Protein 1
Amino acid sequence: MELKANQGRRKIIEKEGILLETYPNVFVVKVNDDQTPRRMSYSYADVLTETVEVKIKENNMRIGCISV
């Protein structure tokens, strides 16, 4: 999966990772960051407010809310 996250102050990160775990309020993604694997967690509210954008890599499907 591809992950794009807004971390404030014009800092946006783009990473590729693997969805490790899902919980009722958050999900955990494992990313390889400069040879060191890291676990990053985000809430589903981050996806709904478009702070985090998630794309499935195989078909480039964007997961999130639809703007009307």
Protein 2
Amino acid sequence: MSFPPRPPIGMPPMGYAYAPVGMMPMGLGMMPQPVMRPIVTTQSAVSQPAKPFNRKLIPQEIPKDEKEEKPPVTTVFVGNISDRAPDAMIRQMLQRCGNVLSWKRVQGASGKLQAFGFCEYEDPEATLRCMRLLNEWEIAEKKLVVKVDAKTKTLLDEYINKKKSRTGGVESEDKEKKENGDKEENETKLEEDLDEFTKREDRVAKAGLDAIMREYAEDLSKKMFMEVEKEPKPVKKKVEEEKIIKDTGIDDIDIEDDKREIIHREIKSFRDLHKVGISVD
């Protein structure tokens, strides 16, 4: 029995889809694609600035001293306010002295602002500064009057004594002098020895008051000019002098006494005759 002829050596037989081992298949002209490998580059170590850490700052709670008391609220009287001074101006001047809780300008029955009011301060230090700076402060040719009542003055005296005891500057006065002190002693208590911090605060407040006066200077001058124009001019009344004719008779006439008596008798008889005629009619 004969077998079919075989192809030459080195050629694949017919019907086989693979090439012999070690042989490259015929008809495949494509080159194998290179494998893509990631390129690794070495970068020089550069120190980057660290990003700031956003952290909310929370104020620390300062432990309060149990012995520390809240300062009392004090009220000051402000009077002799000029009509030309706007109420907003007075309010700003009071706020320059300290924290104002309320400012009440007294109004009349017609709603017109009066020349006085009451200012309530949160701190006695502000009240003392208001009395030091604004008392006798001149606005439109009128000087302010700033004062407190007896109760408020007692609170201010106590505040001054506590302040002195904390700073250790001056010893407190005797209780007998405090109870039986006269007006002069009370005034000296309000005018306490000021420390450097208080003096500096007073200078800053006074500079603010001067700035407010410059700010409202034009308004004050305008109001003064308008008041002069509105003032009615005095009307010159022509007074007619009435000539009073005095019935002096004939006493001033230079005549003899006998003739003067005769004339008097004639005048008297004429008058009597005239009266009789009227009564007859």
Protein 3
Amino acid sequence: NHDYLDRFIQSQDSSVVNKFQQKYWKTKQTLIKVTGKKEDEHVVASDADLDAKLEVFHSIQRTCMELLKVIEQYQRRICFLSQEENELGRFLRSQGSQDKTRAGKIMQATGKALCFSSQQRLALRNPLCRLYQEVETFRYRAISDTWLTVNRMEQSRTEYRGALLWMKDISQELDPDTHKQMEKFRKVQAQVRTTKTSFDKLKNDVCQKVDLLGASRCNLLSHVLTTYQVDRSPHLFAYTPLTLNMVFSVGLPKAVLSGRKTNIKGTKENKTLHGGLSVTSQKVGDTVTHVN
């Protein structure tokens, strides 16, 4: 009974000392990492593929935050520009209604074109809001989940490298003929194997999650931006400039218009612009020949 009690106390003491030593070498490895001291080049090289994946993850994390900031700024500027554009359009329509000459009709048409442009610009906010919500959800769920796995992996890597430092320290003073030293070395060696198994599992998890994260982001942006690029943008960036170009062509002097008509072959085309301004044009492109 006394022998059993002595062995139990000795094993408990050994377990406490072992845990203390594990904490010591883990803390030492943490200090090496924080202070930026040079580590074993072979150990660092063995994690080259993992470090490359971590760079990709941090890039995704950073660019998603930047994208959210850009979308917020873009929405604010769209609202501001739309408001200014609408006010200018209303002003031109108001002034044009008081002018009974051709200039008044041009101002009214330009004003309605600007009001239409401001409405189309505001319509861009719907796909932008959806894009913001999708990216924010992606950041809170997918990126956060990967970030937690990366943190667990970093802790496991610190424990593993700390165990390697511990084993290296013991091996430098190892005497094969001493039973206690060999037993201690085997315990440390077992600790290295245990920490390596845990680290390798988390390392594999991180690499897989980063690959899935990159693919998910590509699919997300490809799907969400389709509405913005195809359904909304053409109305604003194609139709409105064409309308304004036609209005500006109407306002050109007759001498310029007659010069533009020289050697032009085509068919006559009637167009009614905003404000009831009728334009009869014989053109290649947008050349205007007569205003009613």
